[in-house]
Amino acid sequence: MAPPNDMFNDDDYPAYTMGRAAEMVGASQDFLRRLDEAKLFTPFRSSGGHRRYSRYQLRLAARAREMVDQGTALEAACRIIILEDQLEEALRQNREYESRHRSETE
C-alpha cells in the first residue's frame, strides 16, 4: 500500500466503502456488486472482508451506470468499458514507445 502522503494522489488506493462508493456513483450497492460479478473490476477487501473501492474503480462504475441508464445492458457496458480501457492503455504504451524511439534516433 502507498505511504500516507501518496494515498491522496493514488487513484488505485482503496479509500471508499461500498456505501460511500454507491453514493458517489449514484447507484445502489447491488449495482456495484453486479459490476464485480460482471468482472468490470474486483474491489479490494478490508481485513474484515468488506469491499473497498478506489477512485479509478469509481470512475469505471460511474461510466457503467451512465451507459446502463442510457439503455445498454450491464454486461455489454462492462465489456465496452474494458475494451475502452485496454485501448487507452495500448495507445499510452504506443506513445511511450514512439517517444523513446524518436529520442534514440535523434
UniProtKB/TrEMBL annotation:
Gene3D superfamilies: 1.10.1660.10. This is MerR family transcriptional regulator. InterPro entries: DNA-bd_dom_put_sf (IPR009061), MerR-type_HTH_dom (IPR000551). PROSITE patterns: HTH_MERR_2. It holds the Pfam family MerR_1. Residues 15-83 form the HTH merR-type domain. SUPFAM superfamilies: Putative DNA-binding domain.
